[in-house]
Specification:
Elements (H helix, E strand, L loop, with lengths): L1 E5 L7 E5 L9 E11 L1 H8 L8 E2 L4 E8 L11 E4 L10 H4 L23 E5 L3 E3 L6 H4 L2 H14 L7 E5 L3 H12 L3 E6 L4 H9 L4 E4 L5 H8 L5 E6 L4 H10 E9 L11 H6 L3 E2 L7 H12 L9 E5 L4 H9 L5 E4 L22
Parallel strand pairs: 9-10, 9-12, 10-11, 12-13, 13-14, 15-16
Antiparallel strand pairs: 1-2, 1-4, 3-5, 3-7, 3-16, 5-6, 6-8
Helix pairs in contact: 4-5, 4-10, 7-8
The protein binds zinc ion (2 copies).
One zinc ion binds next to helix 2.
């Protein structure tokens, strides 16, 4: 089969290769991949600043059709449309595994950087990580089930948005745009901020119903948030850009006794004023992956059209166009790129409009 493989550590080393086709263990399903998102984490991996065990097939945001089932699989059969999640393997016995947060397992092995992932024709995964996909949710949309689960975990399960809250989402990437939508659904007034290069993403946020989009290079974001809140600051701030400057702004924008949730991946350790946490009595809430319920909610939100994950997808490309997909993601000209191994090699971008809401003209 074809696969996009990170062949060596360090920067670059990403190739489309002929790769061994996996066959399912007794408790695994083999999925024919029909959509897999290129994530900011993939960019970190290709730059060499995220854990990765090469040679390894990248891709951790996938969906597809069950092509084969192992002998012990229950509830799934050949032909089922599914989304599936990481971790690929855990110990199954530690505190985190037993209490339902396998992402925290010290023995977690994730597909897409530690073992082979989904930038390929096929992937095998534990059937207990699979969820049935409603017929009317397209594969293109379902490829965003993973980042939407991350947003749901952050904005519903790890933090509590209350109706009437003022929420700042700093960084209008995929996670930011999804987190903003989830916060909005819970009744918050949502401010989404970005930089000059994020113009297209900010426009997408506006089209998706965010209350206010702000270019932080042209406006004083902190002052604006303080004005909107009568001087106190935002109730909850989600840092989704993964930059020190964005985090700095978030510290200043969150109100005393408010909540700050860092969701963006920083390139390395950063210095920050921990006194602000103490003196403002802040809650700093980490949110990393997702749990079972995050996926159940995410699938319902997509199925009922409450979150427009599809509107973020600017490009759907064949596997052969992976380099273009990575370039578009890296330079910010795409909002979200989904690779579809079922598209012919010479297919161009399959996205022309998003369900009548043409956000990417
Ligand atoms: Zn991701
Ligand atoms: Zn465990």
């Amino acid at each position: 089969m074809r696969a996009i493989v990170k062949t060596a550590p360090g920067e670059g080393h990403l190739e489309l290769l002929e790769w061994r086709e996996p066959s399912p263990e007794p408790d695994q399903v083999k999925i024919q991949i029909a959509g897999v998102g290129i994530c900011g984490t993939d960019i970190h991996i290709v730059r060499g600043n995220w854990r990765c065990d090469p040679p390894v097939v990248l891709g951790h945001e996938w969906c597809g059709v069950v092509a084969e089932v192992g002998s012990q699989v229950r509830g799934f059969r050949e032909g089922d449309r599914v989304v599936a999640s990481n971790p690929a393997r855990t110990c199954g016995a530690c505190f985190h595994c037993v209490t339902g947060n396998p992402f925290m397992c010290a023995h977690r092995v994730s597909a897409g950087y530690m073992i082979d992932g989904a930038f390929a024709d096929f992937l095998c995964i534990d059937y207990k990580r699979c969820h049935h996909l409603p017929d009317h949710v397209s594969f293109r949309t379902a490829a965003l089930g993973e980042p939407l689960s991350v947003a749901v975990h952050a904005a519903i399960e790890r933090t509590t948005v209350r109706a009437g809250d003022l929420v700042l989402v700093s960084g209008p990437g995929c996670i930011g745009l999804l987190t903003a939508q989830v916060a909005k659904l819970q009744g918050a007034k949502v401010v989404l901020s970005g930089l000059n290069r994020d113009q297209r993403r900010l426009e997408c946020g506006k089209a998706l119903g965010v209350d206010l989009v702000v270019n932080a290079e042209q406006e004083d974001l902190v002052e604006l948030v303080h004005d909107l809140s009568g001087g106190s600051g935002a109730d909850i701030v989600y840092e989704c850009a993964g930059s020190p400057a964005s985090l700095e702004t978030c510290w200043k924008a969150v109100r005393k006794e408010g909540t700050l949730a860092p969701l963006g991946v920083q390139s390395g350790p950063i210095l920050t004023d921990i006194n602000a946490v103490m003196m403002k009595e802040l809650s700093v809430v980490g949110s990393y992956g997702y749990v079972w319920t995050s996926w159940q909610r995410a699938i319902r939100l997509m199925a009922e059209g409450l979150v427009r994950a599809d509107a973020l997808i600017s490009h759907e490309l064949p596997l052969e166009s992976f380099a273009e997909g990575f370039r578009l993601t890296q330079d910010g000209s795409a909002i979200k790129v989904v690779l579809n191994p079922l598209l012919p090699a010479d297919a161009g971008n399959a996205v022309t409009a998003n369900n009548g809401v043409n956000l990417h003209a």
